[in-house]
Amino acid sequence: MADEADAGRHVAERPDRGANPFLILLFVPVIAVAGLLVAVLFLPPIAGAAFGVDRIDAKLTALGADFTHIPKFPERSTIYAADGKTVLATLYLDNREIVPLDRVSKLARKAVLAVEDAEFYTHGALDWTAVIRALVTNAASGEVEQGGSTITTQLVKNAITGDTSTTFQRKFQELALALRVEQAYSKDEILALYLNDVYLGNGVYGIGTAADFYFHVPAKKLSLTQSATLAAMLKAPEYYDPIDHPVKTRKRRNLVLDRMAELGMVDQEKIDRAKEQPIVLASDGPLELQQPPFFVTYITEQIVANEDGEFDAFGRSEKQRRRRLYEGGLDIYTTLRPDWQAAAQAVANEPYRVGAAHPDYDQTPDTAIVSVENETGAIRTMLSGRNYAEDQLNLANSPRQPGSSFKPFTLVAAFREDIPSGAVFSTKSPLYLPEWTGNDCSCVSNAEGAGDGGYRNLWEATADSINVVFAQLILEVGPEAVVEAAHDMGITTELPAVPSLTLGTADVTPIEMASAYQTLANEGRHCTPFTVDRVLIDDEVLYQHRPHCKQVVDPEIAHLVTAMIQGGVQHGTGTAAALSPWPVAGKTGTTQDYSNVWFVGFTRQVSTAVWVGFPGTPDSLELYFGQSVFGGTVAAPIWHDYMARIMAGMPAVGFPAPPAPPTGTVPDVVGLKTEKAQNKIAAADFTPKVEVVDDPAPKGTVIAQTPEGGTGAQLGSLVTLQVSSGVAPIVKVPRVIGLSEDDARAALEEAGFLVEVVQVETDDPDKIGVVVQQTPGGGVKAEAGTTVTLKVGVEPGGDGGGEGWAELSRRAWS
Predict the structure, then answer these.
(1) What pairs with residue 264 in β-bridges?
(2) Are strands 771-775 and 787-794 parallel, antiparallel or unpaired?
């Protein structure tokens, strides 16, 4: 019987003690006690007062006085994916799924009754035949060996008292409570409670859970042999375990079948056929609960911690929330999309595209991928490593330096301060900045090392991820403003307000980065990321998520930053993430020591963060790959391949257009020295471009500009400055003989020469007013600015005085 002292072990038969000559003397008190109990149950108390019945009745009443109801059994909670069907995990202290009695097959009910309490529906709280038999046995042995228990008393022991001691006191208490239970519950209710309470091995409680675990069928579909197998296990669940002890379990199962036949519950012919069958578990073996994904760990930690009060419905204290989570029988419906998670896993398992790994390196990089739905903030994918089930690594929610993928927060802060997107900065690397902290030289360098690419505007600097430009920008806007922008957009980690923040030197998590970029994708409206959509208990709603969305960035600023980081995908550092036909905006990130590489980006529908690095102590990825690695070469291809899979079937929707760029007036810098001219152009938010040309003007002097000073133009646009080399150019003298004086003069001056005209008399009317000779001659190379002498024909006797006259035309050089 399941009433044995230890239901988890097989209890061996006791050895034969031999005949007891005093046994017959014990029958008298046994029969007396049995009669007394009958009197208590079936006669008015006063009728048995002379025999102490009232005292026994009072004791039973006192022992059961506090009973109100059978406590709710701990029931496992089930966590489902967003499709409402895929089970991500079950959470439990007792692995139990409660099922009503009408969802348990009649054969299973009969099998349990046959071996546990065949007369359950006809006797009261006790089975007196069994009680008297137990009293005789116990009196003979001098201790409690048999309990004479019923399903009701077993339910009391397991669900109310929890007392497994073998004493008369315990039996009396069980009897008292059993009487109360039979008064408060119907027989069907008691049987249902018992079937959901019993332990059936391997951490499984209740017949519904066992049917699923051993046979992968609902309890309503249990067959005759399956029902008898589970009933057989009740006596000693671990000893009669069909997984570890199929032979023993089959013998016990057949005893159950014989008992069912003996009681007339099933035809003998069916019983005989059933006994011939082996124990057949589910084709793929018992249902083993797989290690849940990191997503489940993240959810359970969120619910128990309840830092923002989101999960108050689970309880006010941590203890209450944990108990409801693991014992409350909850159906938890989450935001995770199994197909997206599978796509992330498949892509993460593919080889990296940057070449073969170093054969002697003993670490392997790992990957985290997090996707957020832009309109709601729902987390649809959360991959925390290539093999979370084995490695148990928290990578999706582990803080790491984001590198340049942090730069969009600096842009948002700058545009909040009305700094134009066309603002222009020097690209000289290294750039020495007195306010720069974090290193001994107070300098910042570009990833490419030393060099000077001139002045670049923020559009170009963003696309090419130019560090020195963003260093100057954060100093202009202030680190505190960048911290504020990042926190508004979804970064929850505390950030230091230091200039190096713009280069991604503060640790943040992939979840935070995906959430923050969602703000840009959602036109400046941030939605708090969430993982739990709704929670049901007994089909009643316990919790329903309401999206928490708030406009935190001006839509025009969000549109502008989105357009700017599109450039990085179209022609900058993130081209490997380009995803035709879907427009993509995003930013690469690489830390200074190459220990973390990122790509964080979005389409109109989804924002995704991809991180790659070493799980443990940060180490350079260059050591593993044997070559330089960047977010654009490692993380961006992963982002592309993953997004290509999940975006399939979604429409290609463009981003809102950025606001029209502001315009300004181009300064006039002709005549200024190069550096002063560039500074003046850059200060006006135009991009200076210097072209050195040969010219006799003083070296380094601006001799021309395009557009001209005073012209209106878009801020950030290019202004080309022609700067003198200080050396006159060597050019060919145009041939002008035969041209009119005016045409000849124009041709020579256009070529950069000075002109001297000498008139000579001629009798040839065709040569009047025409150049008849030039010095130097046409085709000769000479310095620009050289004087070319022209002889022009005039009529004889003219004002030339026979000697001719000279006219010098000079060109001013500046």
Answers:
(1) none
(2) antiparallel
